[in-house]
Design brief:
10 helices, Rossmann fold, six-stranded parallel sheet, Dihydrodipicolinate Reductase, domain 2, alpha/beta, 388 residues, 17 strands, single chain
């Protein structure tokens, strides 16, 4: 029988639902020596009614209204942090010191200093940990990594990333509160840089290696908004849009763009990587497709003399594609929620003695360094070097 892994989740919003679904489903599709048990969920007193509904919906055995009491419980093995960014640091450090495994949503922290302290606490405690950069587990993105590792791209020249949404265009959208805390810098830390570009940065460095230097520009289009809690009109201090140029350690160049003011874009997350031997392109709004351009043979580097050479649309649903042998028959797609299940399956496999899991808190510290460098560059208007 699998060993129970007792879960204590903090936060009952969108990410709490995504993570809870993963805990419920992972053993149905992936073999593991561990079985997640929904032991307890936690939220603030003012969210008690919402928490009760959440617990009943997902089948949590108990509830807590104080995350410190949750961490103190001896029947909890893993603390899952699905709360606003401002709370990540204190909870993760406390959970690690209590010897609990840690799962934390992204971005890791409000800034690099917090992230360093979190990584140090987790390292000292030696607890298993993961950060939910779930897009690494989109099968098409994992296939892109495989293609790159196989040398099919060759020497990289360019990397381009775009992550656009449109949900804050209206000046009537308030900032702050339970629903729109991502618009309040005191709670979120930053705007699209931490919320959206953190994903793009993690994916880019996973595929193309570390970013070495950047220069950035940010923009806040609506300067004042009513605060959802106080009712007062206050300055908006998060970045509505961000763009930056990057130089990677391997010598390739990158462009990154993100905004919440791209009318018609709901979750438009794309990347393209161009190399000497080929290219790859991915769009999250078409998640089961990876586009691949084959120019040269990876073993010889010689141009392929073929009148059919060109961009291929690979339907990433076959059993030989990453993760897909665990799901349906070829041709049947999977969705957003499956990326969290795939990530959890890899995390459980690492507990079973399998490959080391990534991204960890220390990996997310690296992403935090890039995010902070972007904000620093935008403030100073100059290039910023990022420590190796």
């Amino acid at each position: 029988m699998p060993t129970p892994l007792n879960i204590g989740i903090i936060g009952c919003g969108f990410m709490g639902r995504a993570h809870s679904n993963a805990y419920c489903q992972v053993n149905h599709f992936f073999h593991s020596e561990h079985r997640p048990v929904l032991k307890a969920c936690c939220a603030r007193l003012e969210e008690k009614d919402k928490l009760e509904k959440f617990a009943n919906t997902w089948g949590y055995e108990s509830m807590e209204l104080d995350w410190k009491k949750l961490i103190e419980r001896s029947d909890i093995d893993l603390i899952d942090v699905c709360v606003p960014n401002v709370l990540h640091h204190e909870i993760v450090v406390a959970a690690a010191r209590a010897g609990k495994m840690v799962v934390c949503e992204k971005p890791l922290a409000m800034n690099v200093q917090q992230a360093e302290e979190m990584a140090a606490a987790v390292d000292k405690a030696g607890v298993a940990n993961m950060v939910s950069f779930n897009y690494r587990r989109v099968p098409a993105i994992s296939l892109a990594r495989q293609i790159i590792d196989e040398g099919r791209i060759g020497r990289p020249f360019h990397y381009r990333a775009v992550y656009n949404q449109d949900y804050t265009i209206s000046a009537d959208v308030p900032q702050g509160g339970m629903a729109l805390w991502r618009l309040d810098a005191r709670v979120a830390g930053s705007g699209v840089t931490g919320d959206l570009l953190a994903h793009s940065i993690d994916t880019a460095e996973w595929l193309n290696g570390p970013i070495q230097r950047i220069v950035a520009h940010t923009e806040t289009f609506i300067k004042e908004r009513k605060h959802a809690e106080s009712g007062k009109v206050e300055p908006v201090t998060i970045d509505d849009a961000c763009m930056f140029l990057a130089v990677f350690a391997n010598g390739s160049t990158g462009t990154f763009e993100s905004t919440r003011y791209a009318r018609g874009r709901k979750n438009y997350n794309t990347f393209e990587m161009n190399g000497e031997n080929g290219s790859v392109f991915f769009d999250l709004e078409d998640p089961h497709i990876l586009q691949y351009f084959r120019y040269a043979d990876p073993s010889s580097g010689k141009k392929i003399e073929d009148h059919l050479t060109g961009w291929q649309r690979i339907h990433v649903t076959n059993f030989e594609h990453p993760y897909m042998r665990h799901w349906w028959v070829p041709g049947c797609t999977i969705g957003y929620e499956h990326t969290f299940i795939n990530a959890l399956a890899d995390f459980l496999a690492s507990l079973d003695g399998g490959p080391e899991f990534h991204p960890t808190v220390r990996d997310a510290l690296r992403t935090q360094r890039v995010c902070d460098a972007v904000l620093e560059s935008a403030k100073k208007g100059q290039w910023v070097d990022i420590p190796a």
